[in-house]
Specification:
Blueprint: E1 11-17, H1 21-32, E2 37-41, H2 47-51, E3 67-68, E4 71-72, H3 84-98, E5 102-104, E6 108-113, E7 119-123, E8 126-135, E9 142-143, E10 157-160, E11 174-178, H4 182-193, E12 198-201, E13 211-212, E14 215-216, H5 217-224, H6 259-264, E15 268-270, E16 273-277, E17 280-283, H7 287-311, E18 334-336, H8 337-340, E19 342-347, E20 351-352, E21 381-383, H9 400-426
Parallel strand pairs: 1-2, 1-8, 2-5, 8-21, 10-19, 11-12, 11-19, 12-15
Antiparallel strand pairs: 3-4, 6-7, 7-8, 9-20, 13-14, 16-17, 17-18
């Protein structure tokens, strides 16, 4: 740390906001480059893993994909899926190993451009300035609950998935889970396995096989190059950043989730949630469409793997063709929650980020940060740990190390360029 001339506040070359795995990974690489920095974490390391996940939570991707910088998974089950407490231990062990300059319990409340050109950072621990600021807070700030949820009668409990802990934490009765992203389907299964009667509002999330032709699907996809495909080369372009991840689970050793099978086991399926009027729950007529589209993605992944196996002459066991085990007779459009015995609703329709504390012109009209591989057009401002920052693995343990190393290198280059320019401007003119 050093103090700039005429600057009354502590100054760092880099301030990192967020002490999770992404922010700590950047710190690791900045330390290797001897760049002065500090990491502000408003809670404590691994807080979201520890406090914002349900009891039975586990990774969806296998443990071998946990590759923090120079700190890969070192357990005895690389094909398994770490449970919540194990994830916390992994991140905490990484933080301890790198000994980052970490300040926990410090909230960053405001970032703006100062008159001197550097970034002014207001925190709960005082004022700081920096030449560069890395935002590593993730995109899960504000739980999404639709406005019409306020129409639900008070006697029906409603929570967001971030508040869910276990089936026993909900009142007795039947449960409606809204959303079929990774959280929604896993909460549905958690409740179903506990013997609760579950209703599920099915969205448009795609699904994936877990095991196919004798091997874990993510291993096939890794070999196929899906994890190396960059945003610049993706056929969907920037739109892929907002695409919902495929649903499957790592529970009990990992398995795929076919909602049609759950329907056969008694889970009631509906289309996307549309509205609530009193105890009347309204759904869109898209259940059949959403199930079919999820299956289309599932089958397409299988075909990609089949093609790769054939092209490379790989000896792999054959699989029977996919078939639908259940079809809805119709798309139910309304349900009387009281008549059905639904006493609680779990909203699992995601989150939205909150960057209102960053007073810099680096966002689009929807409030999404604009960047190229984490580098914004606003000098000195960077993002990391977001889905498709550069690759599919950018928002996961798999791709963070590469992204962090790249950002640290960019920052180093800019620091060296600024120092060179300063030296040149101070050099006396030759006569």
């Amino acid at each position: 740390m050093n103090n700039q001339q005429n600057n009354p506040h502590p100054h760092y070359q880099v301030i990192i906001v967020g002490g999770g795995q992404a922010g700590l990974s950047v710190s690791y690489h900045l330390q290797k480059l001897d760049i002065s920095h500090i990491v502000f974490e408003k809670n404590r390391v691994a807080h979201s893993w520890r406090n914002d996940r349900w009891d039975s939570f586990c990774l969806v991707t296998p443990n071998w994909q946990c590759r923090l910088p120079d700190f890969p998974y070192q357990g005895d089950d690389p094909q398994g899926f770490m449970l919540k407490d194990q994830i916390v231990e992994y991140v905490e062990a990484f933080a301890q190993k790198i000994n980052a300059p970490l300040s926990e319990g410090v909230t960053v409340m405001r970032v703006r451009r100062g008159n001197q050109g550097w970034l002014e950072v207001t925190t709960s621990a005082g004022e700081f300035t920096a030449d560069h600021l890395v935002v590593a807070t993730g995109g899960y700030d504000i739980p999404i609950i639709p406005d019409y949820a306020q129409n639900l009668p008070d006697h029906i409990t409603q929570i967001h998935s971030v508040q869910y802990r276990n089936p026993q934490s909900l009142p007795a009765g039947e449960v409606l889970v809204v959303g079929t992203g990774q959280s929604g389907v896993q909460l549905m299964e958690d409740l179903h396995l506990a013997g609760r009667k579950v209703h599920l509002a099915v969205g448009n999330a795609p699904r994936s096989p877990r095991l196919y032709r004798g091997r874990e699907t993510t291993e096939w996809l890794y070999d196929l190059g899906f994890y190396r495909l960059t945003l610049d080369n993706h056929p969907m372009g920037d739109a892929v950043r907002h695409k919902t991840n495929h649903y499957l689970t790592g529970r009990d050793g990992g398995h795929e989730i076919d909602l049609r099978k759950f329907a056969l086991e008694g889970v009631s399926l509906y289309g996307s949630m549309a509205n609530i009027q009193g105890a009347t729950l309204e759904f869109k007529a898209d259940l059949t469409q959403n199930l079919d589209e999820a299956d289309d993605v599932y089958v397409r992944i299988r075909k990609d793997i089949d093609r790769y196996i054939a092209e490379n002459g790989i000896d792999a066991p054959e699989e029977p063709p996919f078939r639908k085990v259940w079809e809805p007779e119709f798309d139910p459009l309304t349900v009387d929650a009281d008549a059905a015995g639904i006493t609680s609703i779990v909203w699992a329709i995601g989150f939205r980020p909150d960057y209102s504390w960053i007073e810099l012109p680096a966002f689009d009209v929807q409030g999404h940060p604009q960047f190229q591989r984490g580098i914004t057009n606003e000098e000195g401002l960077y993002f990391i740990g977001l889905p498709w920052l550069n690759t599919w693995g950018s928002g996961r343990f798999l791709g963070i190390a590469e992204d962090a190393q790249y950002l640290a290198g960019v920052i180093q280059g800019k620091i060296e360029a600024a120092q060179s320019q300063t030296c040149t401007s101070r050099r006396p003119a030759m006569n």
